[in-house]
Amino acid sequence: MEIRPDIFKGAYRLVTESAKLEAGEDVLIVTDTASIKFAEAIMSASLSITKYVDIIVMPLYGRLHGQNPSKAVAEAMKKVDVVFMPTVWSMSHCTARRDASRQGVRCYTIPSADDELFARTMVETPYGDLKETVMTVNQMLTEAKEAEVTTKAGTELWFNLESRYNIDLEHGWLHKGQEEYNDNFAAPPCVEANIAPIEGTTQGKIVVDAAHSAVGAVNDPIYLTVEDGRIVSVEGGKEAAALQMRLDDVADDDIYQVAELGIGLNPKARLRGQFIEDESIFGTAHVGHGNNESTMGGTITCNGHFDNIFWYPTIKLDGKTIFEEGRIVSKDLPQLSGYYVK
Q: For the whole model, what pTM was predicted?
């Protein structure tokens, strides 16, 4: 196999910094037919540390983010120390990933894998510098009873967060034996804070003007109405029509349930129509719908998870503004350098 040096550089940072892979650990790489070159780069980087590395290649077919692999793949994932998942469709929210993590397997999902994700974003993202900000925002979300999110484009949302706590530390690192990583899940180079609101309570409107994980970058905004924690209407142009088709494909009414409030915190992320990078842009927020039991401690077990990503949110927790038009304004939060301007 021939591996591009720039792609290998991202894979090596994933293996050595994000995962801190150790000699003697068993590694499984689960990939698909469209992502094999990234799996080979991760394999090469892993073999520089441990000799126990295997790859499973799944066919690329009409899957959706958060849907499960075959039973054979799911079982294999539970029998190693580390699983890397460079795939087109995200395995972050599937029960196979959740079950492997609960078995003590360190799981790293890399959905929407492409050349730039490995060659630039994976290399440039300053995980260590972002960790304190991510953990502080997560703690604020955990302590808050309610959240309000608005944008100039028309997003107006209210979330009930009472009694919910964040269990998903998305700052790109997942290291062996450290208590803060007990959830055993990371999705580098995604850097975000998130929480699962109380199901059945979210109210308002979402204007998706950046990207949607099911359809990519958005040119014509998608307008969603949320009532009692459910998306009850999807309106807009061609992207809205494409989203409705994806929702219909899931064939599970719970895909309409609001599952997540997420805040992008990666100043090196760029809007490219690759959702794992899009949703982590510093200057965006997103509202997930579908499964949240597998990653965020919610109760929705739907076989799918989608994210609505929008620009420059103003976010209030218990009436106190912590972000204004995408920028950090709370004095309790570490500042981030870099800010995405369209």
A: 0.91
3-state secondary structure of 25: coil
**pLDDT tens readout for residues 218-229:** 999 999 999 999
Task: Report d(CA 71, CA 66) in Å as an integer.
Answer: 15
Per-position DSSP letters for 41-109, written without gaps between them? HHHHHHHTT-S-EEEEEE---S--TT----HHHHHHHTTSSEEEEEESS--TTSHHHHHHHHTT-EEEE
Taking the C-alpha atoms of residue 140 and residue 2, their distance in angstroms, rounded to an integer, is 46
**Residue 335 predicted with pLDDT over 90:** no
Tokens coding 96: 């196979």
**What are the beta bridge partners of residue 147?**
159, 317
For residues 263 and 314, the answer to whether their CB atoms sit within 8 Å is no
Specify the pairing of strand 82-87 against strand 27-32. parallel
Task: Report d(CA 82, CA 26) in Å as an integer.
Answer: 6
Strands (E), the chain: 27-32, 53-58, 82-87, 106-111, 146-150, 156-160, 185-186, 192-195, 203-208, 211-212, 216-217, 222-227, 230-236, 258-264, 284-290, 305-311, 314-317, 320-324, 327-328
Beta bridge partners of 234: 224
